[in-house]
Amino acid sequence: MIVKYITKPNPEALQKAFVGCKELNYDKDEFLFHSGDEVTQMDLLINGELQVFKYDGNMNEVTLNFFRPVCIVAEWAVIQGIPYPASARFTKKSTILRMPLSEVQNRLHSNIELNHILMHSLMNKIDTLNLAINRGLTMDAMQRVAHFLFYGTPDSLALKQTQMASLLYLRPETFSRILKQLKEQGLVDTQKGEITVLNKEGLLKILA
């Protein structure tokens, strides 16, 4: 897999790729973009948190992901030259660095490191999407939670429990009930809202 030959960019490398770009601040609940908006820039989230979601047929929000610093936002739409396929709203006060499309094109032609950064970012998001599709199509509620915790990254496990429930298309009370069952089985622990996985093999048995 080609991503194995590309070093994972650290926060410093990501911000270096956006050096000289405009810094913008947003308040909680402000939108970065709406589904269908034309793409005119590429953004780097350097502080705060961003929820990306779509609306279903009943105008309910379906969360696709939560993004935390430092990461590029919606680079697939930028590279493909398509409108944003989803909406993005800040869940807390946040800061981004913004690179205009013309500058993106110039830097892609002259900066090999930026190309590697974009490739690595896209591969990670494709992996995340594949995991989400697998959960949503083939698993019951208990398996979805176990799968999320088994494959959880430090960023995903640091989300609020209501945000985790949203990602798994579960009601918060359903997620809380399942989490309690996993805790009683000694598979996880929760302290002050933070989840710690204690037994990954036990989670794997649930998936099997």
Would you tell me the overall average pLDDT? 90
H-E order: HEEEEEEHEEHHHHHHEEH
Q: What is the H level of CATH, i.e. the homologous superfamily of the largest domain?
A: Jelly Rolls
- Work out the helix count: 9
InterPro entries: cNMP-bd_dom (IPR000595), cNMP-bd_dom_sf (IPR018490), Env_Response_Regulators (IPR050397), HTH_CRP (IPR012318), RmlC-like_jellyroll (IPR014710), WH_DNA-bd_sf (IPR036390)
Keywords: DNA-binding, Transcription, Transcription regulation
GO molecular function: DNA binding; DNA-binding transcription factor activity
Pfam families: cNMP_binding (PF00027), HTH_Crp_2 (PF13545)
Quick synopsis:
InterPro entries: cNMP-bd_dom, cNMP-bd_dom_sf, Env_Response_Regulators, HTH_CRP, RmlC-like_jellyroll, WH_DNA-bd_sf. This protein is of the alpha+beta class.
Describe the structure.
Residues 5-125 form the Cyclic nucleotide-binding domain. Keywords: DNA-binding, Transcription, Transcription regulation. This is Crp/Fnr family transcriptional regulator. It comes from Leptospira jelokensis. Residues 139-201 form the HTH crp-type domain. With 208 residues, the protein is α+β, with helices and mostly antiparallel strands. The chain folds into two domains: 2-133, Jelly Rolls; 140-207, Arc Repressor Mutant, subunit A. 44% of the residues lie in helices and 24% in strands. The chain is built from nine helices and ten strands. It has helices at 11-17, 75-80, 101-110, 112-138, 141-150, 154-157, 161-167, 172-184, 200-207, and strands at residues 22-26, 31-33, 41-47, 50-55, 61-67, 71-73, 87-90, 94-100, 188-191, 194-197. The strands form three sheets. It has a four-stranded antiparallel beta sheet with strand order 1-8-3-6. A hairpin with a 5-residue loop joins strand 4 (50-55) and strand 5. The chain is globular, with a radius of gyration of 18 Å. The relative contact order is 0.14. The mean pLDDT is 90.
